[in-house]
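Lecture 7 notes: from sequence to structure.
We start with the chain below.
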Amino acid sequence: EMATYDIVNFKNDHFEQVGDLEEFLRSAQHGREAGRLGKQRRHHVPRWWGRPSSGFGNSLSGYHLRIGIVPEPPIAFLDEKCVNKSTSPPSCWYGWNPDIIAHLAADLNFTYEYVIPADNKYGGFNKTTRKWNGMVRDLLDRKT
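Predicted structure tokens for the same chain:
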């Protein structure tokens, strides 16, 4: 049996479901296929995307963000032409996570690049060395 995923928002000390991965992937499938054929990539927005904004407005206007990411389908796919690079432009990535980041960048008016951790991990604490690895290490080292 295949795992299922809900898309949630943490609000008032609890998680609130705002969508589900299967719905998002179905709505985004056409956009990914169009991108592979060299056409302009379209972002198909699921029904839950139209909810009221968070109130941030354009508070990130003019910022350039370095966003930590690990290639892990179906969350994030890395294009073959971009493998073996520690940083990559948004055009190297597709999947629901990069699609959401692209929408946020458009709504909040910021630019960004992705940073892949050297060890390709999200991050865990080593009790022996008392150090973090992965994206958490990158955050602590101010790489992302």
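Points to note: Helices lie at 21-36, 96-108, 134-140. Residues 33-53 have pLDDT under 50 and may be disordered.
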